[in-house]
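Standup notes
- DV: blocked on the single-chain target, sequence here:
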Amino acid sequence: MRLQPVHLQLETYAFTNINIGPNEYFFKAAADGSNLRPINIDDIEADLVTLQEPDESNNLMIELKIYTTPNIDTKNVRAKFSITALAGFVMPADMLADYLADEKTKLAIVANCAAILYGATREQLHSLSCKMPFGLITLPTCSFNNISIQKTEPDAEAKPKKTPKKKTAKA
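- DV (later): unblocked, structure below
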């Protein structure tokens, strides 16, 4: 099999938040001899944000936050976690043109970025949890095909809010 060049390159990534711990019932369940289950796909959620849209530098920056669902039955799950990763991707000019021109292509490119970053996040969480008393956390394999993207504007909170002017009818 001949390998093909990849057009979307992961340039850099970093973890900005990692929080891992047993649930409230872990030690009680261990004392009782209860079995707690590992985390499955229904127990996690993900938020995906594009932090920087690509420009002439061809850089795309995304943030992916993966966490245990707040409303799960925590008595049955061994651990809870939250992990946030930032990643910068570089794409060639022709891919950038497609990204800017077509919404479906944009979603496909961001879904690929999220899948690449999810794999790195999955490995990091697995490595950090290996010596924890509740055992390994291995995130399930998942797909980002049906994603929705949140966009952030830099300094969005710093901008003053405009109050709408009242329109009055003239007689």
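- Follow-up: Residues 57 and 70 are 38 Å apart (CA to CA).
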